Amino acid sequence: MPVLYLIACGAPPAAELLSHPEAVPGLQADGWTVCVLCSPNGERFLDTAAVSIATGYPVRVEQRLPGEPDVLPSPDAILVAPATFNTLNKWALGISDTLVLGILNENLGAGLPIAATIWAKDELQKHPAFDAHAQLLFESGVRFIQPDEDVQQFPWRQLRLAMAELLPG
């Protein structure tokens, strides 16, 4: 089965990874092997033990030590859900000060399919750096999935459909 890295950053939708039927359960039903990685702030929103049981893999937060084996299989695609203002801006600048940013930077450079949904307050999205950084990532191949207009819920269904397009066969 193809491997999907689901990267969760520090925002409320990260708490829905197991409870929303279109998130981890739906992605698994579609045929993905889902491995969850999260930013240090994202970890606060997760029950990492429950996520590990549901996926069969530990939730990775910290970078591994040199020589330490990787406990996750290599990804075939990456989904950043939710992508925060902080993560988006650091990612666009190539900053790799957390495990997830290192994974995102490395795999963007490798050309791996990456989809993301930004979850940030309107005020943060009006920051002068935001649009330029989102555009840079878009031009580098990141597919951004946004909620339908006037919808306040996280777009798990749209993300699941976008990831299904990447499944082989």
From TrEMBL:
Domain Flavoprotein per the UniProt entry, residue ranges: 20-100
An example Gene Ontology molecular-function term: catalytic activity
InterPro entries the record matches: Flavin_trans-like, Flavoprotein
Protein name per Swiss-Prot or TrEMBL: Flavoprotein
Phylogenetic lineage: Bacteria, Bacillati, Actinomycetota, Actinomycetes, Catenulisporales
